[in-house]
Amino acid sequence: MTSAIAAETPAPLPPPRAPLGAQTWRECGYLLSGWPLDLLAFCYVVVWIYVGALLSVTVIGLPVLAAGLLGCRRLGAWERARARELLRLPIDEPSPLRGARRGAGFFGWVWAGLKDPVGWRSALFFVVRLPWTTLACWVTFVSLFVAWPALPWLARWMTNVDRALVRGLLSPSDELERRIAELESDRSVVVDTSAADLRRIERDLHDGAQARLVALAMDLGLAKEKLTEDPETAARMVEEAHGEVKLALQELRDLARGIHPAILTDRGLGPALSAVASRCAVPVRVTVELDARPAPAIEGIAYFTASELLQNVSKHSGAAHASVDAWRAGDRLMLQVTDDGRGGADATAGSGLAGLAERLAAVDGLLGIHSPAGGPTTVTAELPWRDRPSGPADAPEGTPR
After folding, report:
1. Euclidean distance between CA atoms 60 and 95, whole angstroms
2. Is pLDDT of 15 > 80?
3. Cα–Cα distance measured from residue 384 to residue 331, given in angstroms and rounded to the nearest whole number
4. Which of 269, 261, 276 is nearest to 314 (CA)?
5. Contact at 8 Å (CB) between 181 and 95?
6. SS3 of 77, please?
7. Of 59, 157, 278, 307, which sits most exposed with the smallest number of CB within 10 A?
8. If you average pLDDT over every residue of the chain, what do you get?
9. What CATH number is given for 188-259 in this structure?
10. Where would I find the H helices in 313-387?
11. Segment (H or E) for 291
12. What is the rounded distance in angstroms from the CA atom of residue 115 to the CA atom of residue 73?
């Protein structure tokens, strides 16, 4: 009897589970909020076009249209942020309004605004999408009470339509537009870096070679005065001046090497990197595998990148050994500096690595850092390969000249 009753006892129910996942709720929130927001945006676009058309015969018509397009840009930015947050849609921001940012004056701003494709596409987006968001909002609302088991599939299908509209009308128009934005932001970095380099050269000349040459001219003047009355003292002063000349020449050579070393111009990246490595405080192995020389600008950036990285190895790493490797990978010049030091290098900590990454980015380059605590540290610089103009002094490295 007991066994029969035990056999009829039902099994325990499984633990409760949410019928809808977090992503489904986010998609439902996007669909339900889309209709009122798009309705407001649609009314804004319609009123703007109507007022702009009425005022187009007056002086203020074009500025009104340009200001309205700027407002459409802002609405598009808001919609992109909403799609990123609720739909998890990876979408970039388009380039800013370039004509207005250059400070071309009021008429330049108006003309740039009227030609802005981002503003026009944003306006078209809110006009085209209102009928769809109206339907999607009410289907979602009804499904919450009538057909909620099918809601995950309905929400995903309807938000896929929204994803397609956002990508088609609110995303940057093409890769060129994104590259223009990146290059414009990098241009300021190049200008600042060039100005800092010029100030450094001016300071080095003023405090170093120029001061030494001024002192040398004064010493030679005194020696000239003593030449007839005290030849021995004059000879000693000339000898000291000769030593000062040698020091001034050495300072000028060092300064010229900091601008662009002669060994890099004459012999290429391999010998130049070997010369830099010989001045490092730790032993450095250099391996350069290049069948040709890149453009002088790329070659110079690679040289100074390696030089700065080896200076970091000498000053901060505590390493016993380091290596420098350079090679070509397709249309990229690769440079890698490795050391067995303490590690912990970080480009986000305000170090020189951050400035180095910005300089590389200005020429479409990349800087990768792998530096766990305890080491080793590997820093990889990637530069675009640009062919060097042909000439007798531009033969591949290792080629007799």
Report:
1. 27
2. no
3. 6
4. 276
5. yes
6. helix
7. 59
8. 77
9. 1.20.5
10. 352-361
11. none
12. 13
Which residue, 387, 365, 364, 282, is CA-closest to 324? 282
152's tokens: 């995950």
Structural domain 263-384, CATH architecture: 2-Layer Sandwich (3.30)
Looking only at the bridges linking them, the beta strands covering 284-289 and 322-329 are: parallel
- DSSP per-residue codes, 313-335: IIIII--S-EEEEEEEETTEEEE
- Written as six digits, the tokens of 324 are 């420098």
Of the candidates 76, 99, 89, 120, which has an alpha carbon nearest to the alpha carbon of residue 180? 99
Residue 211 carries which side chain, given as an amino acid letter? Answer: A
Question: What contacts 249, CB < 8 A, 6 or more positions away?
Answer: none
User: Where do the domains of the chain lie?
Assistant: 22-173, 188-259, 263-384
Q: Is 65 within 8 Å of 56 (Cβ atoms)?
A: yes
Separation between Cα atoms, residue 205 and residue 146, nearest integer Å: 82
Enter the pTM of the model. 0.46
Question: Sorting pLDDT into bands at 50, 70 and 90, what band is 268?
Answer: confident
